[in-house]
Structure formats: structure tokens, C-alpha cells
Amino acid sequence: MSRLTGILEQYKAESWKIEHDSAMACYDFDDWLAFGLKCLEFIRDKEHRYHERLKTEKSGADPRGIEDIQELYEQWYSPCRHLLEELDRFEKEGYVVSNSDAFRAACMSSNIPGFEPQTLQSAAQRAHAGGVRFAKEIRDELQRRIRG
Amino acid sequence: MNYNVAYEDDASEALLRLPPIIASKVLDEIDKLAEDPAGLSRRAYFPYLPTGQIFQFWCEDADHRFWISVFLQYSVDETGIIILAIAGQDVPR
Description:
By secondary structure, chain A is mainly alpha-helical. Helix content of chain A is 72%, strand content 2%. The interface between A and B is large, with 40 and 38 residues.
């Protein structure tokens, strides 16, 4: 895990160094997004393989590996906001960035099922409009379900 | 100071879909969270709502092991927390 963490640390650090510079060829930036997408793909593959191992190797896979994978995702997401800002600037200047759609979609994806940004935004709006329940109600409902 | 806890409707449904013993333990953990949300949760990272917090922990019973993630926000008056999402990843024992 540490080697991958090291690569992602470098990806993160290099991403923050990207500052908009008209002299910087757009294709360099596009390549950087492609590299970022490959890193994400690798993390997702790693997560998939990890879950497969958990299913098949009863004692061979460390269940706490899920926490390490969570950290990898957080490292990956860390420079996304900055890269999205740079992407917007390039496009406003008329550059075509071939990885733009894929990168934007990746940035808005969630590594935690059910935590998609749009889902959370809608939940926040409903909650502020009063769509909430309190713990006692939920415990009572749970008791009813347990009793069957 | 204990914060009041409110559960957004979909979050409460997600909680109730967990195995009952696990769901009960998650409620207990969220009660503990209400005692110290700043200490037990951490700021949400991009791409999640920047005003949110994430609380993650393991929850087990005799048959199951879940990695639980809770997304929350402070209420506007900052006397309570609102649970906006609960996700449980089943990790086979």
C-alpha cells in the first residue's frame, strides 16, 4: 500500500503545482488528467480485488484494508477542486480537453455508496425543510421490526 | 454538551435496512458522536458538501461486520447535528 500512497502523494503534490499558464500546452494538462484517471481506475481495481479476496479467502485478507483504500481515495480527491478550476480556465480560453467529461464525472463520483454529492445535497435540502426523525422514533421502529 | 440528533428521512431508512443488531449499535455510536462531534468526526473531503462531517467506524455482531460511514452537518443554530446519510459496507467475516 505504501508504494501506491507514495505515487498518489506525488500526484497530489504535482497537481497543486499546476497553475494556469498560457504557455503550458493544453495537451500536457490533458495528459495529467489522463494520468489522474488511471490512478483512480487503479484504486477502484484494487478495491474490487480486495473485496473479492475478502469473499474467497476466509482468513487471508485483512478486513481493515478498507480503511487504507478509503485513504487512497481521499488522496486522489484532494487536488480535484484545483484541477477542475484549471480545466474550466483552459476551456474558457477555447482549448479542447479530451478527458474533461471523464475527469468531471470522476470528481463527482463517490467512493462511499450512498454518499453521491447530489444525494447529499438533496438530503440536506429535505432536512432543512423539516424532513427529519429523532432517535427515539427510530429506536421504536427498530424494536417493532425486531419483534417482527 | 450533548448535541441534539436528527436523522434525515432517507438516512433513517438506510439505517433501518441494516441488520437490526447492527442498526441498534449504529444508533449507540451516533449517541456517542453527539457528545463530541468535533472530536469523533472529521471534515468532509471533496467532492462532498464542504459544510459536512464524516464519521466512520466498525460495527460487528456475531454474524456481520460492517464498515459504517455517516455523513452529518451541524444544525443552523449549532445545537444539534443532522444525519444526512448512513452507509454500511458489509465486510464478510
